[in-house]
Design a protein that fits this description.
It is a single chain. With 287 residues, this protein is of the alpha/beta class. It is built from 13 helices and six strands. It has a six-stranded parallel β-sheet. It is globular.
Length: 287
C-alpha cells in the first residue's frame, strides 16, 4: 500500500510485529497530515527503557508529536484500562495510533469491560500462585472464562484469576457488559503489517545488534539495581537476558543470542494474534 492510498481524514491504526517498520510509517503519516503519533505498545510506555523497547529516539520525538511513550514508572501498575483512558484524550485531533500490542487495539475498536482494579493483596497472592502452581490457578477459573482465554499464557491466566478472586465474578461475565468502543472499526483506517518471516527474523537480529551498539547493555546496567522479574516493565524483550549477563550468569554473546531468540518468539506470538484477531484489518507488506 502506498502512502497516498491511506486516508487523510480517518484515524489511522497501525499494528504489526516488532521490528516490522511500524514507527517509520507512522512518522510518514504524521508528517503528511499533521497527526499526533500515539503509542499502542505495552512495553514502550515505561520510562526506564528506550533502546530495548525500540521507543522513538529523542530526535524523532522532537521532530514530530509523540504521546504516551516512556511516561510510566518501572513499578507503576499499567493495564489496557489505563491505556484506554489515556488515549481517549487524544481522539479529538488527527492521530496515528501505532504499536504491537493487539489487546490495546482490540479494546480501542471493540470496547473494554470496566473491571475493577485488583487489590494489592490479591495481586501478591496471584503472583505467588502463578510462580508456585500455575495449574491450580488455571483449575480455579470459571468455565466460561477458561473457554475464552489463552490458558497457555500465564499473564492472561493470572489476570482472569485475579478478577474472579477480587470480585467473585468471572472475567467472561465482566466482558459481557463491554461498553461501546472509542473508535469503531469501520470508522478507522486499520492497517496491520504482515512481513515475511525470514525477512522479519533477519531484521530483528540486525536491530538487536544495533541496540547493543547504541548502549542497550548500559541501559540494562542502569536498571539492574531496581530489577524485579515480576514487574510488567521487566518483560522488555532482551532485558532478562542482559540482566543475567550483568549478574554473571551468561556470557554476553550467549545473552545476545538468547535475546534475539526471545524477540523472534515474541514476533511469532504477535503474528498469531494479528492473524486470528485482526482478520478484517488491511494487510500491508513492509516497505
Amino acid at each position: 500500500m502506498r502512502l497516498a492510498q491511506i486516508s487523510r481524514e480517518a484515524p489511522v491504526l497501525i499494528a504489526g510485529p516488532t521490528a516490522s517498520g511500524k514507527s517509520g510509517l507512522a512518522m510518514d503519516l504524521a508528517a503528511r497530515d499533521g497527526r499526533v503519533i500515539v503509542n499502542a505498545d505495552a512495553l514502550q510506555v515505561y520510562g526506564c527503557w528506550r533502546l530495548l523497547t525500540a521507543r522513538p529516539s529523542m530526535a524523532d520525538e522532537a521532530a514530530l508529536p509523540h504521546v504516551m511513550y516512556g511516561h510510566v514508572g518501572r513499578d507503576q501498575p499499567y493495564s489496557v484500562g489505563h491505556w484506554l483512558r489515556e488515549v481517549r484524550a487524544w481522539l479529538d485531533r488527527p492521530v496515528v495510533i501505532v504499536g504491537g500490542t493487539g489487546l490495546y487495539f482490540l479494546a480501542l475498536t471493540e470496547g473494554l469491560a470496566e473491571v475493577p482494579e485488583t487489590p494489592p493483596t490479591v495481586r501478591a497472592e496471584a503472583n505467588a500462585l502463578r510462580l508456585g502452581d500455575l495449574a491450580a490457578m488455571v483449575a480455579a477459573l470459571d468455565s466460561q472464562t477458561a473457554a475464552r482465554i489463552d490458558l497457555a499464557n500465564p499473564a492472561r491466566v493470572q489476570r482472569a484469576w485475579e478478577v474472579l478472586r477480587a470480585t467473585g465474578r468471572g472475567l467472561a461475565a465482566w466482558q459481557a457488559d463491554t461498553p461501546a468502543p472509542l473508535i469503531a472499526r469501520k470508522g478507522a483506517e486499520a492497517l496491520v503489517l504482515r512481513p515475511q518471516v525470514a525477512w522479519l527474523n533477519a531484521r530483528i537480529d540486525r536491530r538487536f545488534d544495533q541496540m547493543i551498539a547504541q548502549g542497550a547493555l548500559e541501559e540494562a546496567r542502569a536498571e539492574a539495581p531496581f530489577w524485579h522479574p515480576d514487574r510488567p516493565s521487566a518483560r522488555a524483550i532482551g532485558a532478562p537476558e542482559l540482566i543475567a549477563h550483568l549478574r554473571g550468569d551468561l556470557p554476553l554473546a550467549a545473552a545476545v543470542e538468547a535475546a534475539k531468540l526471545a524477540s523472534r518468539q515474541y514476533a511469532k506470538r504477535q503474528r498469531t494474534w494479528f492473524r486470528n484477531r485482526m482478520r478484517d484489518w488491511t494487510p500491508v507488506p513492509p516497505s
